[in-house]
């Protein structure tokens, strides 16, 4: 069971149940007490009023006696009997002798010398009127005189009646005939009060007060009955039980209400007290639930010196200890973790190095093909079941030219591409290995000469497809040779035979290979020249005109014309992102661009047809004032071919669209050449070129 539930039961539920129990008990006891009090009230009222009526009737008899015996007939004497309306004289047989006013009755008594017995008077009903009956004698005759009592007598006497809204009183004679009743229709009728009827039946006559309950007109009623012994009259006080109970319950309900007010107040204050206990505990629980060992924090609380404050204090102390312990553990964990990571890294590096060493011991680092050592081991492992065995030898032609012209990166790319072609064709039919440099070998088990020849032809087809779409890459030229052992034989001898066949193929293709390389370079230049829309052709034509104007010798003229074609040879090694960049080159890009003269120089040296102009390609970006590149030559130290090309090439660049500038008009270009004459350009050549270009439409 939760603490909150226990506290609710202890603080609110149990006290509330006790309050409800005592409230209901009080309600019952108070109701009982008030009912008894009301009964006593009715009984006391009956006693008091009965005595008053008794006194009043005795007074009336005394007044009647005074009036009868008086000799005066004045009206003031009659006022004494204001509650007596008239009188009736009855004989022994109850026959009416006289009925009339008091004066008449008084005269009748005197005339007939009637002797009245005032000591034994009765009150009885006659003709539905209450009457005081006084017995008389006259000689041998006797009878009674009835003095009718007005209802006002009872009304005056009971005008201060205090029996509630529904309470009332009435009177009967000794036979139960109603003498007076608030309901005038009931006067002269027999009572229907069962309590009174029971008294009449039992002839219980005494001075005590009789009480009891009876049912009348659909309602329970309570009555108190007083017998007026002197006049044989029953005086009855009646009150509705419903009203008695209502009054009792009304009074008792105040106790219930008060009890519930106490319960409500106790509940409110109990809840406040409960919340003062629960809320801090709930807040503490919430903080504990939200917290973890990484972000535990101290709680702010009001120190009331109670148990809850001590609980918060204990929590904060625990938090401090746990935080310190966690910090120490975390530091220790981080240290252990760092050491573990270091060990793991070292282990992984060691494992990787081991795997790498193992891989490199069997594979070529550049291509991923098997290496020389693995290839020869596989040859040694061959058995008679592996025959026929064919061995293919291959050599990448022109690798040195590629390295020298396009760089070793391009050479490596050619080697890698060659290995890819071998793998694409051979697949899992044999073992492909790079024996070193530009040499490759293929060991084919269970492969005859015909099948080996087919594989070589497929590889040549792949090479042809690659060369048909170079995209600026170096073309591949590979020489092949193979030998086949149909039966068990020394495979090293078979390898030598395949190598000889490969060299024969290489000698046959050497010239073709170099020619292909030259064609590739020129084709690449043509592709680059496409960007400048005929730049090379225009420059070659203008260089020829200027050369003839300067009377160059045939060698110089041939070198100039060839230089005009291949002076940008080195640009085949410059990335297109720099060559066709639409904006100005940054410093790093410009440094890369300036390298094209040196690249072109190396390429030309590697190609016999261009070797004679390699120095011109290296110097074609020198300036007359010595601020050119890459050697910083000036004036006549710069070959005349280069000085002519510098003017012509600059003019064509200025007057044609380039990625980095808008074309200038012919006049603007001529003015620019004039401005740069003597700094960038040879003044003499600049002047001759301006004269020539000015005369060309």
UniProtKB/TrEMBL annotation:
InterPro entries: GGDEF_dom, HD/PDEase_dom, HD_GYP_dom, Nucleotide_cyclase, Rev_trsase/Diguanyl_cyclase, Sensor-like_sf. It comes from the Bacteria. Residues 510-697 form the HD-GYP domain. Keywords: Membrane, Transmembrane, Transmembrane helix. SMART domains: GGDEF. The chain crosses the membrane at residues 7-28, 254-274. Residues 387-520 form the GGDEF domain. PANTHER family: CYCLIC DI-GMP PHOSPHODIESTERASE PA4108, CYCLIC DI-GMP PHOSPHODIESTERASE PA4108-RELATED. This is Diguanylate cyclase (GGDEF) domain-containing protein. It comes from Caloramator quimbayensis.
């Amino acid at each position: 069971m939760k603490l909150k539930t226990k506290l609710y039961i202890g603080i609110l539920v149990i006290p509330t149940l006790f309050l409800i129990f005592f409230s209901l008990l009080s309600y019952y006891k108070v109701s009982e007490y008030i009912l008894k009090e009301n009964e006593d009230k009715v009984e006391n009222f009956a006693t008091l009023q009965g005595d008053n009526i008794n006194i009043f009737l005795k007074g009336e008899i005394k007044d009647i006696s005074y009036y009868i015996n008086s000799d005066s007939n004045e009206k003031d004497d009659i006022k004494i009997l204001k509650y007596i309306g008239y009188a009736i004289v009855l004989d022994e047989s109850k026959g009416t002798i006289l009925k009339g006013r008091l004066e008449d009755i008084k005269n009748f008594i005197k005339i007939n010398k009637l002797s009245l017995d005032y000591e034994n008077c009765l009150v009885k009903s006659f003709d539905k009127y209450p009457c005081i009956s006084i017995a008389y004698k006259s000689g041998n005759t006797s009878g009674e005189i009835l003095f009718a009592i007005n209802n006002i007598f009872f009304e005056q006497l009971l005008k201060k009646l205090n029996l509630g809204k529904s309470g009332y009183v009435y009177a009967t004679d000794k036979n139960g005939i109603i003498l007076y009743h608030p309901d005038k229709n009931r006067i002269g009728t027999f009572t229907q009060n069962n309590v009174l009827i029971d008294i009449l039946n039992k002839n219980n006559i005494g001075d005590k007060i009789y009480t009891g309950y009876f049912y009348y007109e659909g309602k329970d009623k309570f009555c108190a009955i007083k017998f007026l012994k002197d006049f044989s009259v029953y005086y009855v006080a009646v009150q509705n039980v419903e009203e008695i109970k209502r009054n009792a319950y009304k009074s008792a309900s105040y106790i219930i209400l008060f009890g519930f007010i106490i319960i409500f107040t106790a509940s409110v204050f109990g809840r406040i007290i409960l919340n003062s206990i629960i809320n801090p505990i709930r807040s503490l629980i919430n903080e504990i639930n939200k917290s973890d060992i990484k972000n535990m924090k101290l709680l702010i609380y009001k120190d009331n010196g109670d148990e809850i404050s001590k609980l918060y204090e204990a929590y904060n102390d625990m938090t401090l200890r746990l935080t310190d312990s966690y910090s120490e553990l975390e530091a220790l964990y981080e240290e252990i973790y760092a050491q573990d990571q270091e060990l793991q890294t070292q282990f992984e590096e060691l494992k990787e190095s081991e795997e790498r060493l193992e891989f490199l011991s069997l594979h070529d680092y550049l291509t991923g093909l098997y290496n020389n050592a693995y290839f020869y081991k596989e040859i040694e492992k061959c058995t008679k079941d592996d025959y026929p065995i064919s061995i293919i030898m291959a050599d990448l032609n022109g690798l040195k030219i590629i390295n020298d012209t396009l760089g070793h990166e391009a050479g490596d790319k050619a080697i890698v591409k060659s290995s890819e072609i071998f793998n694409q064709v051979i697949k899992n039919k044999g073992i492909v290995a790079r024996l070193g440099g530009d040499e490759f070998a293929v060991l084919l088990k269970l492969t005859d000469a015909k099948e080996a020849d087919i594989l070589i032809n497929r590889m040549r087809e792949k090479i042809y497809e690659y060369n048909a779409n170079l995209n600026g890459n170096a073309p591949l030229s590979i020489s092949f040779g193979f030998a086949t052992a149909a039966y068990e034989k020394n495979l090293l001898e078979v390898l030598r035979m395949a190598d000889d066949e490969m060299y024969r193929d290489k000698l046959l293709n050497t010239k073709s290979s170099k020619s292909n390389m030259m064609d590739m370079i020129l084709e690449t230049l043509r592709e680059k020249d496409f960007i400048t829309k005929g730049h090379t052709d225009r420059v070659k034509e203008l260089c020829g005109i200027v050369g003839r104007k300067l009377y160059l010798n045939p060698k110089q003229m041939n070198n100039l014309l060839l230089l005009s074609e291949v002076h940008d040879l080195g640009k085949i090694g410059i990335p297109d992102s720099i060559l066709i960049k639409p904006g100005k080159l940054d410093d790093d890009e410009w440094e890369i661009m300036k390298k094209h003269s040196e690249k072109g120089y190396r390429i030309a040296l590697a190609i016999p047809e261009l070797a004679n102009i390699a120095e011109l390609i290296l110097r074609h970006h020198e300036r007359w004032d010595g601020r050119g590149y890459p050697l910083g030559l000036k004036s006549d130290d710069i070959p005349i071919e280069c000085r002519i090309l510098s003017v012509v090439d600059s003019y064509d660049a200025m007057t044609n669209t380039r990625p980095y500038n808008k074309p200038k008009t012919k006049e603007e270009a001529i003015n620019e050449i004039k401005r740069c004459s003597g700094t960038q350009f040879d003044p003499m050549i600049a002047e001759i070129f301006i004269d020539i270009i000015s005369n060309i439409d």
